[in-house]
Amino acid sequence: MRPCLLVAVLCLAGSACRNNTGPIDHLVVLDVDKVEAPATISSTSPLDVVLTVLTNPCQSFERIEADRLSSSAKLTAIGHDPEKGCTNLGVLQPKSYRLEPPFVPGTFTITVDRGRVSPLVATIQVR
Predict the structure, then answer these.
(1) Could you give the CA distance from residue 5 to residue 3 in angstroms, rounded to a whole number?
(2) N or C: lower Cβ tally within 10 Å for the chain?
(3) Going by C-beta distance under 8 Å and a sequence separation of 6 or more, which residues neighbour residue 45?
(4) For residue 16, what is the DSSP state?
(5) Which contiguous run of DSSP H or E holds residue 6?
(6) CA geometry: angle at 126 spanning 125 and 127, to 5°?
(7) Cis preceding linkage at 46, omega within 30
């Protein structure tokens, strides 16, 4: 009876019963070509940001992750890369993200993480 219990526990943990015959899907930080944001916003208005995400034919866009503080936000484009390392020509895709108010009057900085290359930065004046 104990060997069956051990097999059941291993299957539930996923280590013994996973089918590893298909391609491995990796989540990756996607490159961003540019960030677009308004120059000024009201402290009570939402802030709409557009990231122009670069993907190759092997990758697909999944989501934008945001880490927000009172006067800044870090945005990261996340995607799937089932064939990690594909070097085919890239495709630019605009992706929108909305940051909700309130905003502190002054300067609001958006930093876009681009993985191994330097980040993009946009500065917005909040009135």
Answers:
(1) 5
(2) N
(3) 101
(4) S
(5) helix 2-13
(6) 115
(7) no
